[in-house]
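G., the chain you wanted modeled:
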Amino acid sequence: MHRWRGGRQRRGRSLGGQSKGGFSTRIHAITDALGNPLEFVLTGGQAETLPALTPAGVRAFVGDKGHDSDALDQAIVARDMKAVIPPRCNRNKVRECDWLIYKERHLIECFFNKIKHYRRIFSRFEKTARNYMAFLHFVSALIWLR
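Predicted structure as tokens:
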């Protein structure tokens, strides 16, 4: 019988949450008006959508139809932000969506496409949140220097 049956002990917070399909992690990002990264928060795949990431000056939460829920709307309004989320087709109470702000969402999507060019980001070789976040910051610096 081995002293460490499961292999070596890892230090630090593990990366992501456990789900039926395996481990999953969400990267929440704040970008400026040009799509350059400003701040990140990592959460497990099953965690709440709106993390404690509200720096000064944020006026809107821009999300896709998957973020359309009344609980999230209440949390966004409680933080004095505007919810820019298109309503789902099966929503009972249809709400307005500012489509001009929503069109700027493609900058965030383009940012996520840029970081997926780096193998260590998309394949998640890093097993701890600290190491993964460090590589996210490194990739962000490379994007800023382009």
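The mean pLDDT is 79.

Shout if anything looks off.
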